[in-house]
Amino acid sequence: MKAREKFASLDKCSYLGHLSTDRSFDVFNPSTGELLATLPDMGPAETRAAIDRAYAAQAGWSAMTARDRSDMLWRWHQLIVTHTDDLASILTAEMGKPLGEARSEVSHAAAYLQWYAEEANRNYGETISAPSTDRRMLVIKQPIGVIGAITPWNFPASMVARKISPALAAGCVIVLKPGEQTPLVAGAMFALAQEAGFPEGVVNLIYASEGGAVGSELCSNLKVRKISFTGSTEVGRLVMRQCSDQVKKVSLELGGNAPFIVFDDADVDAAVDGAIQAKFRNAGQTCVSTNRLYVQAGVHDEFAEKFTERVRGLSAGNGFNPEVAVGPLIDTHELAKIDAHIAGSVEKGGRIRCGGRRSRIGGTFFVPTVLTSMSAAMRIAQEETFGHVAPIFRFENAEQVVREANDTIYGLAAYFYSSNLKRIWRVAEALEYGMVGINTGRMSSEAAPFGGIKQSGIGREGSRHGLEDYLEMKYVCMGGI
């Protein structure tokens, strides 16, 4: 069955029955240009209607026992596991990533639902020793309320689950707007949520071709008590400004400029493996993708040679081809950004070791690229590329590389390879990032807190801390005991 037909079979759209609009927009396969679906194009009016529906459902959902909410999340988890292949096919069709990566993402989405199905039962309060014998003091934690969530196009399944599952586990209801380039897998997942038995109004989906008007309504509507946004730092700043008049709580997972550091005592072959994984997963279109590879002088040439040879073997193409390692870029905007970053680097002395050009198969495909002879003055050193271009910078000592790695407004993820235990501790503590991977190129897990510092965001997703982000703390003092 084609991905288009799989979407139609999973997405009954009955959860959109309360929303109507005469506007529509098309969703295309970035690899082939194929029309995948035509969806209702919603705006502020439809968003308000969804918020009203969620607000009406909030009291009933939060009054349910944690066990009942847990059971519903478990049922949704199981349905996603059952439909992994269908969801992965939809994901590959609308986003372009290789089918194996898509299956892995769907499994990751299911893992978040499983984790928070378990965490729903662990919303603990506390008691406090009172200053007098006639008082009792305690803290309870209650759901914030209606959540407005905005997810990006690059991980359209796992991002949805990562935001929705802790909110639902905490007792919140949600209105979610997925990325306009990749809304189909979210629609299929919401249809499965309905099949799992979630009450009317608890999960609400907004399809929209343009996020500004929908986002403004979510941020300004008094019935929405929190915004959870994943996307660029530029838009994250706008979300913060729009929420500030209401002092609305926000969780922001924003851009990154991840360094990947290889010290001269590292296992070079392992570092090459890790760098391939950290740079080329999802064609480099991940917020935690390494953007700058720093390699110490003693192993620079060996690493650059081995890494370049591996990259030359990565084929770009349609994600449904089992031999393809790298899919397309999501659109021509990202393609133009890669062109500009490479051209700017070459102008300032950078050397193209492989790739450096658009693919002959056309579309938004780009040949995986390695650059050397790089410097901090280049644009690529300061901006997030969001594509499969790997610039390698040479460094001399730990103090220098930590200073250069931290020289950015971003602070999401960092990676480094070393076998020196003293160095491992000191560098891990010195790097100004919310997440640090040591001797690994991949560290995301539903059990770990995901998020950044500086202008890479506020709050954490995943882990027990992710549940706390959807709860309000209430102090209760009882006198006359």
UniProtKB/TrEMBL annotation:
Homology family: Belongs to the aldehyde dehydrogenase family.
GO molecular function, one term: succinate-semialdehyde dehydrogenase (NAD+) activity
Organism: Sinorhizobium americanum
Enzyme Commission designation: 1.2.1.16
Alphabetized CDD domains for the sequence: ALDH_F5_SSADH_GabD (cd07103)
Active site per database record: 253
One Pfam family linked to the record: Aldedh
Keywords: Oxidoreductase, Plasmid
Protein name: Succinate-semialdehyde dehydrogenase [NADP+]
One Gene Ontology biological process: gamma-aminobutyric acid catabolic process
Domain of life: Bacteria
Domain Aldehyde dehydrogenase: 22-476
